[in-house]
Write a structure and sequence with these properties.
The complex is a heterodimer of chains A (103) and B (816).
Chain A lengths: L3 E6 L7 E7 L3 E7 L5 E5 L13 E3 L2 E3 L6 E3 L15 E2 L1 E4 L2 E5 L1
Antiparallel strand pairs in A: 1-10, 2-3, 3-4, 4-8, 5-6, 6-7, 9-10
Chain B lengths: L3 E6 L3 H13 L4 E6 L12 H5 L13 H6 L2 E4 L4 E5 L4 E4 L4 E3 L2 E4 L3 E3 L12 E3 L3 H13 L2 E5 L3 H12 L3 E5 L12 H13 L3 E3 L4 E6 L5 E6 L4 E3 L2 E4 L3 E3 L2 H5 L8 E3 L10 E3 L4 E3 L7 H15 L13 E3 L7 E5 L7 E8 L4 E8 L2 E8 L5 H10 L36 E3 L4 E2 H11 L4 H8 L9 H12 L21 H10 L5 H7 L11 H12 L13 H5 L2 E2 L5 E3 L10 H13 L4 E4 L5 E6 L4 H10 L12 E6 L13 H11 L9 E6 L13 E6 L2 E6 L11 E6 L2 H18 L6 H8 L1 H8 L3 H15 L5 H11 L3 H4 L2 E2 L1
Parallel strand pairs in B: 1-2, 1-7, 2-3, 7-19, 9-16, 10-11, 10-16, 11-12, 18-20, 32-33, 33-34
Antiparallel strand pairs in B: 4-5, 5-6, 8-17, 13-14, 14-15, 21-22, 22-25, 23-24, 24-25, 26-27, 28-29, 29-31, 30-31, 34-35, 35-36
Helix pairs in contact in B: 1-8, 10-12, 13-15, 18-24, 19-20, 20-23
Classes of the chains: A mainly beta (103), B alpha/beta (816).
Bound molecules: siroheme, flavin-adenine dinucleotide, iron/sulfur cluster (SF4) and FE2/S2 (inorganic) cluster.
The site of FE2/S2 (inorganic) cluster has 10 residues of chain A, from loops.
Chain lengths: 103, 816
């Protein structure tokens, strides 16, 4: 069963930026903060060649992978067409300025 | 709120393309109804030729199948011709009496083939070549009959004739002009091409007037009579003598037409609710008959239908290629000659090669190539860009080998490469994959092909080759992007030049205000435009615009190069390639302490520590800083290295102290960000051991001083640096180099290296600003020095911040 874990304060993640959460069980998870202060979390592995998505440029609700520029939708983990592939996404939420992750 | 109603009349290439563009930017604004006279969904009309030639099937050329209309909520009504528009009631009426209301109406009725007004023109067996029905009729005729005559030796006529020959008919082409394709080709190229077509069995009657079509016993046409008295047997007559914009509907509604529905630069007709695109439209006096312009029109029309109100269509320059497999001809622009024009011609009839470039005021205004069309897209690009060719005139006809990619130079034409040929070395994409993607997905532009296949999307060296493959697959439908006016990315209509100008003239100092002022289409841009904007801001307003880390590519954000496994590499600066035992010891200690798996000497005369974990970065930098070392910016669009040779300090041939000169230059440029990376080299004598001939700025010591070279490039495509000027003193070397680089920093487009910048603006221009204008040179150099003053080593800054714990968010992970 997954349960909610408190991760960090919203301000610990830069706007249009991300942090990596290391989890024994799930490996690296990238948490993103958009310009609207929405929070998303996906597996920190690009469906293309496992690039670290956390290191990409965030725009809208997408991140561009730093290795070969696939665009990954943060809400679903899906690559933007015509590329095809999906990375696992995790539920994340913001409560009273704190970021929570369901793992 | 109810959605607005948009009605499209004409379910063809231009109309549906407009809907596609509209869907991208305003998917929910309209309820859309489409009326098409043909019974088919939108198909790729230009591919009717390969269908006729038996190379493709109708199924292959469908661009938008019925599912597409459905998925996008578009109400498609096929086999329904609109015959009346009531502009007051804002309704259109179909033949069968059905009607539809509109708030906006888009006319894309295409054109009608011109049918010669001769006796017998209505006989069975006399057809035009325009749609699937015509193509089917030709295929059917070829099954039953022997003789065909095609009227008109333009692109369409020749493609029809070629297809009919391949289907077993005996074909004569009757042409009014003195040579074939006289609108696209000059006489010499036309003659060569005619010979090649004759060798395939095509027969010609040139300067021939059709008098009448004769009816046979069956009631079907049986012959074509020429004014000369000659009679040609003909069971099938294909009229390909030109097209006329289809304006009947618009005219009947009182919309101003004059050889086309007259539109303004927003593709709006004289009725503001009605737009027109495609072959039916007359824009600034021209009704285009090729698809490339229609796509540009579609984009603009969509922009205005979406009420963005910023796109403008300003006309197109077109080029053509004949889609007859095995015959290579390319033509673009104006080559009728005329005052002030010069011809540069290469003619080698026995090899079957002919090239002619028409030049006016040092710019290409027309180009024809037959046999070897490899450089067609290069000529066309220069023509569109209005590039000054004075410097490259001498080798213009021998080709650019824009192609790149070792092994494909010039002689190999894209068309003749086998499907298995690897085109894109970075992404391993073969020709067959590209051709298939173009055909199956109906792609027309380099961008589309990059998106679908990844070909040429990495290092870009195969761009020329990919462009050729597109051109040879889609014929004249291909337009290279206009490199001067190309939009920065999909987030905006504006070009790099326009963005730079707005930032400067309107004193914009942050990304949100640029996006607001220039109507960016996305809330925070993308990974292409944000880094560009960030650079433009900090280079235009140094010390004023604030650097935005989130708009930098990871390497520049982390101040280290990301590796394929997510680790980083660390390259400390070694000014001029010089180091000391202490520095080497510090590097060795750091490598030990942080368990660096690989230590390598780089091609830039310094040492690379590869495979460092991200959270170790601030600590390894702290150690290197303590030993007096600073960032080498091996990761930045910035000053990289100044390579030097040993020079007069030690070398028996050295004329100048190159190490010293190099160190001074590298110190001066420390912290310089630029549109792309910048590399310099200083050699102590013309033996040039520092390879100054392929650097952005190359300095070569000679007895009397230094020779300066600029705009060399040793990367993807090696470009030799061009001689810039000669100077006497070290101070002059610094001032001229700084001024040249500052000009590039102020005017270059993001990701344009000096070689491309200088190609774009011309070396003469750069010299006029730097070499010939002493006051301007000084001012430029001062602006550079001002921009760089107080620059702090980013590694030192980050290692101290890390000690205080304030950088955690950038370099440390969270553990749960
Ligand atoms: C480390 C080094 C290779 C080496 O081990 O020698 C290197 C490594 C990379 N080069 Fe290079 N280049 C290195 C010298 C060169 C040179 C030689 C030189 O500088 O004299 C060239 C040709 C000269 C030139 O640039 O004109 C060179 C032409 C390129 C290019 C093609 C640039 C072009 O305009 O054509 C790229 C791609 C790009 O920048 O877009 C590139 C890109 C790269 C990148 C940064 C790829 C990337 O974006 O991640 C490589 C990082 C590898 C990594 O995993 O860390 N590298 N690269 C060299 C570092 C020199 C240094 O001390 O800073
Ligand atoms: C065989 C062939 C080969 C070609 N090869 C090339 C090439 O290599 N390169 C190139 O650039 N161009 C080529 N072209 C030209 C290119 O196909 C046209 O420029 C392009 O299709 C024009 O698009 P359009 O939307 O303006 O017109 P169309 O694609 O013709 O679409 C107009 C549509 O409107 C429909 N219509 C008209 N009136 C009405 C009405 N009142 N009510 C409902 N529907 C109506 C028509 O039936 C038609 O389907 C070729 C054309 C042909 C025929
Ligand atoms: S270091 Fe340079 S040449 Fe080598 S693989 Fe990387 S980009 Fe290519
Ligand atoms: S690994 Fe992400 S795009 Fe290649």
């Amino acid at each position: 069963m997954s349960d909610w874990k408190k991760i960090c304060a919203l301000t610990d993640i830069p706007q249009l930026g991300s942090r990596v959460v290391k989890s024994e069980e799930h490996g690296d998870i990238a948490i993103f903060r958009t310009s609207e202060d929405e929070i998303f979390a996906v597996h920190d592995k690009c469906p293309h060649k496992q690039g670290p998505l956390s290191q990409g440029i965030v725009h809208g609700r997408q991140v561009t992978c730093p290795l070969h520029s696939w665009k990954i939708n943060l809400d679903s983990g899906e690559a933007q067409a015509p590329d095809a592939g999906c990375t696992k996404s995790f539920a994340a939420k913001l409560e009273n300025g704190e970021v929570w992750l369901s793992i | 709120m109810d959605k607005l109603k948009l009605v499209l009349v004409g379910n063809g290439m231009a109309g549906v393309r407009t809907l596609e563009e509209l869907r991208k930017i305003a998917p929910d604004m309209y309820d859309i109804t489409v009326f098409g006279a043909e019974p088919h969904p939108n198909y790729n009309r230009i591919m009717l030729s390969p269908v006729l030639a038996g190379e493709m099937s109708i199924q292959d050329i469908i661009l938008n199948d019925l599912g597409w209309y459905k998925d996008n909520g578009i109400n498609l009504i096929t086999s329904r011709k609109i015959v009346k528009i009531n502009r007051k009631a804002r309704k259109v009426f179909a033949e069968d009496g059905s009607e539809a209301e509109y708030d906006r109406l888009l006319l894309a009725t295409g054109s009608n083939p011109f049918i010669l007004p001769v006796p017998g023109k209505d006989l069975p067996g006399v057809i035009a070549y325009r749609d699937i029905a015509d193509t089917d009729a030709m295929i059917e005729a070829a099954r039953q009959y022997k003789h065909a005559v095609v009227v008109g030796a333009g692109l369409l006529g020749l493609e029809a004739a070629n297809g009919l020959i391949l289907r077993g008919m005996s074909v004569t082409v009757v042409h009014l002009g003195e040579w074939i394709m006289e609108r696209q080709l000059d006489r010499t190229a036309a003659n060569m091409m005619q010979k090649a077509l004759e060798a395939r069995g095509m027969q010609f009657r040139l300067a021939a007037h059709t008098a009448e079509l004769v009816q046979g016993e069956s009631g079907r046409v049986c012959a074509l009579k020429l004014k000369s008295g000659e009679t040609l047997p003909a069971d099938l007559v294909v009229m390909a003598a030109g097209i006329r914009p289809n304006t009947a509907l618009a005219e009947s509604a009182g919309i101003h037409c004059n050889r086309g529905i007259v539109v303004n630069d927003t593709m709006q007709t004289f009725d503001p609710r009605i737009y027109a695109v495609g072959e039916c439209a007359n824009h600034r006096g021209i009704a285009y008959g090729l698809v490339a312009p229609l796509f540009e029109q579609a984009k603009v029309a969509a922009n205005h239908l979406a009420m963005y109100g910023i796109g403008r269509y300003q006309g197109s320059v077109t080029s053509t290629k004949l889609k007859v497999t095995g015959i290579d001809v390319f033509s673009a622009g104006d080559f009728s000659g005329g005052e002030g024009t010069e011809d540069i011609v290469l003619s080698d009839p026995s090899a079957g090669v002919y090239k002619r470039v028409v030049v006016k005021d040092d710019r290409i205004i027309g180009a024809v190539a037959y046999g070897d069309t490899a450089d067609g897209s290069w000529y066309f690009q220069m023509l569109k860009d209005g590039q000054n060719i004075a410097d490259i005139r001498d080798h213009l006809l021998f080709g650019k080998s824009h192609l790149g990619d070792a092994g494909h130079k010039g002689q190999n034409q894209a068309a003749s490469l086998p499907d298995t040929a690897e085109i894109c070395g970075c992404n391993g994409v073969c020709k067959g994959t590209i051709v298939k993607a173009i055909k199956e997905n109906g792609l027309f532009t380099l961008d589309d092909v990059r998106k679908h296949t990844k070909a040429s999307s990495s290092c870009g060296s195969c761009t020329g080759l990919v462009e050729q493959i597109i051109a040879s697959t889609v014929g004249g439908a291909y337009t290279p992007a206009d490199s001067n006016n190309k939009a920065v990315c999909g987030c905006t209509e504006h070009s790099h030049g326009e963005v730079r100008k707005a930032i400067r003239e309107q004193h914009l100092i942050d990304i949100p205000s640029v996006m607001r002022t220039l109507d960016w289409k996305t809330p925070n841009g993308c990974a292409s435009c944000r880094p560009a904007l960030n650079y433009y801001l900090i280079s235009t307003w140094p010390h004023e615009a604030k650097d935005d880390a989130q708009s930098r590519f990871i390497n520049e954000r982390a101040h280290a190069n990301i590796q394929k496994d997510g680790t980083y590499s660390v390259v400390p600066r070694m000014l001029g390639g010089l180091t000391t035992p202490d520095e080497l010891r510090a590097i060795a200690d750091a490598a030990d302490k942080f368990k660096v798996p690989t230590v390598k000497v780089t091609g830039g005369q310094r040492i690379d520590l590869l495979g460092v974990k991200k959270d170790d970065l601030p600590r390894i930098w702290a150690d290197l800083s303590k030993a007096g070392m600073v960032s080498g910016h091996a990761y930045g669009k910035s000053i990289r290295t100044v390579k030097t040779c040993v020079g007069a300090e030690h070398c028996r041939f050295g004329t100048q102290r190159s190490m010293d000169m190099g160190v001074k230059l590298e110190k001066m440029l420390f912290g310089m960000y630029s549109p792309h990376k910048v590399k310099l080299a200083v050699s102590g004598c013309p033996r040039n051991c520092a390879e100054a001939g392929i650097k952005d700025v190359g300095v070569i010591g000679v007895d009397s001083g230094y020779e300066l070279y600029v705009a060399g490039n040793g990367g993807i495509k090696t470009e030799v640096a061009q001689f810039f000027c000669k100077v006497k003193t070290d101070e002059e070397v610094m001032e001229y180099s700084a001024a040249f680089l500052q000009l590039y920093r102020e005017e270059g487009y993001y990701l344009e290296r000096t070689v491309h910048y200088v190609q774009r603006v011309g070396l003469e221009y750069v010299k006029s600003k730097v070499v010939e204008d002493a006051a301007n040179r000084k001012a430029l150099a001062e602006r550079l020095i001002y921009a760089l003053q107080d620059y702090k080593d980013p590694w030192f800054e980050r290692s101290t911040l890390a000690e205080q714990g304030t950088l955690r968010a950038a370099y440390e992970d969270i553990t749960v």
